[in-house]
Every structure is written in C-alpha cells, then in structure tokens.
C-alpha cells in the first residue's frame, strides 16, 4: 500500500544558475519506526548544502509506513510541512510517496525471517531501478533508517543502479539523546525544550544544542564499470539475489537449453539429466512460456497428448511408431508414470499431487546442481501466484530459453531442428532460429 501527498506550496523562481533541464532532486529513504531520519536528512541538506528535495520516496514495512504517515503527514503532527515552513526557503513542498514492501501475502509487517528479508531486498531493488531507469533525477539516498540490513541493501542497490549524479549518505545526530527522542525531527528555528524519557527524573534538552550533519558515503557505480551489458541487465525486473548473481557474470543473463531427446538441461556449463517424466513436464511448461503463457495444472487434460509425446521423445522412442511404443505401453505410461488415464487427469487430486511431486524432484535436482547459486531459482517451475495451479519457469526472473531435441535424431526424415506434432508455429520459429545459432 502506498501513501502519496501531492499538495504543494506556490513555486518560487528558480535559483540563479539553474535551468529547466535540471535533474529532479529526489530523496530516497528506508525507514523503520523512526521517520525522523527523513526530516533530519532534509534539514542537513537544506542548511549545509542548500539542496531542496522536489520529491521524497520512503520505503518501509507496514508498521513503519503507519509511523511515517502519522508523524510526517497526519494533520495533528504534519512534521514534514512544519519543517518545510521553516526551512523550505520558498521552494514547493515536495511530493511524498510512502510505501510498504509487498510480498505474496500482502504488505510486509516486519523483517523477522529470511523470506521477509528477501521481500524487502526485492522491494528496495525495484524502487531504486524504477527511480534510476531514466537520467532525469538526482537521487540522494539515505541509509540511516530501518533495520541495519535495509540500509545495507539500499546502499548495495545504489551501487548497482546509481548514476554519476546520485549520492548516498547517513545522517548523524548529536548529542545521542536527540537521535533517540521521539519528538525531535529537526533543529527548529525557535529553540524548544524537550525532556528525556528514560529514568525517573527526565533531563531537559535544548534543541539549540542539537547538531545534524550528513556523512557522505562514496560508492562504486557498477553500471559504469560493466557498460552496455549492465544497462541491458539493469533494465530487467530481477530479484535482489538474482541481480547480484548476474552482476558476477558480467551482466550476461543465463541461457537455458532444454534438450528433450537427450533428456537434459544445460545452463552455465552444467548439464542436468532429468527422468523422462520430469523432462516431459518441464518441456511442456517451457513451451507455454515461449508463447507468453503459464502452464495450468487444472487444464492438464488438454495437454495430455503433448505431454505423452514429450515423454516418449525423452525415452528415445517414437510414439507414432507401433514398433517403438505399443498401446499397452501407452496405457502403462498413463497409469504408471502419471498415475491417471487421460479422462481422469483434470479432476483427480492424486494426479495433481503427483505432478507437484515431479516438480519437486526437478527442483531438488536443480538445487543440487547449482548449490548456493540463485540461477537455480530461475530454472525451477514456480507458481505464478502462491496457492494457484499456474506454473512458469523462474517467475519474473525467467532465463532465456532454447528448446531443442523435439524429435528423435537418426530417424528417417527426422531432425532435431524440426518440431514434432502439435507444436505451435511460434515455437517452430523459435526452435529453428535458436538451433541455427
């Protein structure tokens, strides 16, 4: 869920020396339960550098978003507007967008386990990619808020996506009593007395004694070092883990070759053998993906003939040749390999569960082959959404797919560049072109 505030104050004339082509000044923050870092960073930028944000993006958890909404925007507090009235120097109040990282189960409540940490990482990468995809912003990113991992992830994302005009900093507030005080958001023009809330006797604090400065954090801009290959990679909506791994490969995305006749997968120098039933199901999902569709387990009856064809190709046998495969063997395939006849597949829970077991077996083989590498996740048949029956390869991180071996080599009139029965025209073109390469 996102909160936006687009209310602006009247614009003042542009400062001397600026042009209409000036990049939009954008403050990007990650926050936890202390949204004060937003106004503290704005204070340091305005007072020490005369840098005034035109837009603010805040990324947090659901709880953190609620705190930021209440403290910065709610009329009873409105700390952003209060700060801007004192230090905005006539510039329009910046537009602000407050977001909670969202996963499959909705907005992220907190970072409490590896899954929620990965969700936050992906949200940060997505936000930084979105803000840096065009060269029209000058981003100042603050790593001061939220859990320590959030600051690290933001800094790392800026290193991968950041451009020459972008900056990274941490805000420093002293004495430390101000840093932890829930009512201190910036150093007001008129001094105020706050009181510490620890101990039986609160200690008075004069805001005139507060000091707020920025520690600039130099960072390596990877997109500059990797050149054109990085720009192509960074334009794709990859997860954080996948992006880090692809950067290690110099920005080259993985290419997956599915050899049905050989019953093997080939990717990044590794060959992974699959059982014929695993290959048949994997190749069927890939065929759907090459058409821009997802494989629907609920509609498996419509794919039964194709699944059977792929199975026998992976076995090295020709379904259209009775000397290779007779009717009894075909029935044993239906009842033995996938446990069901063609007619009963769609509604039989046992059949669906068995196909899920096949997918699990494929996943285990890929994890074993690519131990510790995120590329395995890009090759695994994954549910398009949690709990449904649609599957794709790798989800949003799908690899480049080459589907080959769709007919048996060494047979009269047969060639691995030619598709077998019922292959869509789009696949025939893709396969022929891919094999020719």
TrEMBL record:
Q: Which NCBIfam families match?
A: cas_NE0113
InterPro entries xrefs:
CRISPR-assoc_prot_NE0113, SSO2081-like_dom
Signal peptide positions are none
Supply the source organism for this entry. Answer: Chitinilyticum piscinae
Q: Which superkingdom, per the lineage?
A: Bacteria
Which ranges are annotated Polar residues under compositional bias? Answer: 1-11, 414-437
Matching CDD domains: Csx1_III-U
State the residue spans of region: Disordered: 1-21, 413-437
Q: Which residue intervals define the domain CRISPR system ring nuclease SSO2081-like in the entry? A: 34-248
State the protein's name. TIGR02584 family CRISPR-associated protein
